[in-house]
What does this fold into?
Amino acid sequence: MEYLFVFAQSHEEFRVPELLSISELHGFTIGFDRYANVLDKAIKRPFMILMLDKEEHAHILAQRCILIKSVHEFYAEGASYEVLHEQNSRARPQWERYIPDTSFKFHVLGYNFTIGQRRQRQIIESFAYMDFLGKIEMKNPEVTLTVFEEYESGRAPDGGLHKDGEFTQVYFGRLVVGGTARSLMGTFDVKKRQYFGNTSMEAEISLLMANQTLASPGKLIYDPFIGTGSMAYTTAYFGAFVYGSDIDGRQMRGKDKTPGIIRAAAQYGVASRIMDLCTFDITNHPWRCGNFFDAIITDPPYGVRAGAKRLGRKKIREDRLQPATPRPNEPYIPPTKPYELSQLVTDLVLLARYLLRPGGRLVFFLPTVSDEYAPPDINTVLCEGMELVANSLQDFGSWGRRLITIKKTAHTEYLPPSFDSVREAEESRDTHVPAHKDFREKYFQGFKKDGER
It folds into this structure.
């Protein structure tokens, strides 16, 4: 059966991956038959007509997918009301069961346009042939019939404002369920959180990332760059147990006696699902066995607000053969050096292959330079046993960040990665240079080309 999905007009490229992830989590499929060759264009619009086997699946998606505003049983569409009514008449077997004694109301909405009350009444009266005999109930009807008029974004072709009735497409259907998951954006609003930092991820993105991990009760999820814990709260909210680590423990702890992440997790009622928080460098990790986690979710530091670090010295000084001895009663603080982004991403994928169970997912953000990005940028970080599932862009103009979802397809038990040896092998041969290489330097140079720097 076909259903009309109405989406929030944000993060268009994230819609389909989110739908597919939640349907996979619950074991059903979604049909995109209408968009076989035009899916890239279709996701730019707020409406999509998709196939579902059961109405129950629409409820599951609306309760979990952050980008769904509402789902409707689809009756008709057209470029004019004549076409719409003709198609709706043919769909009579779908709605005739509501004719005898079902309370109902009509809802008329315009996308990119506000429809006046008088014309709304005219539109509703044009459906008189449906002959509904039930009571009109505006507050709690048994059936809500919805008309959507879609107008092009921006101004009309002649430069003026859109005129009433000059829509590009009109849709009609029965409301099945509203997108209840969107209320979680308010629940996890960073401004209302007890503990957050300047790198804390916004609520909507954190929820989208959690959905990409297939977070659900009993799953074990790891964030190797947990920072202030934004993704830990949303994945734990969906029932997963979360383990976090960071090279800088101050981000996790905060200044109070109780670690900041634990305080914020308690605010959301998920403190019991934060398994532990540890301080270490992922290239010197303590994991002694692999195939352990169901998912890895993270937002690696890429240098815009905080640069990535790893253990090691920036440069060996000839005049200092021995490391400086710490003063009495003073803790030893190991030296760190910059962690170049393309190396970090390669290491992260190798670590994920080692730690993930077969079928497990790695979900992370990758910043890229818009003018330099090419598909091989992502393909070059993949390795044997790891497969790209989704690549969704959040565009900021001259640069953007891509939500990358990679799935472990291999059932082989891999040895812990030897990061330095792999890096030396990669650097020894001529390979594709990705747009995210040296991203920090490019960002602070304003993404100027080589000749302009």
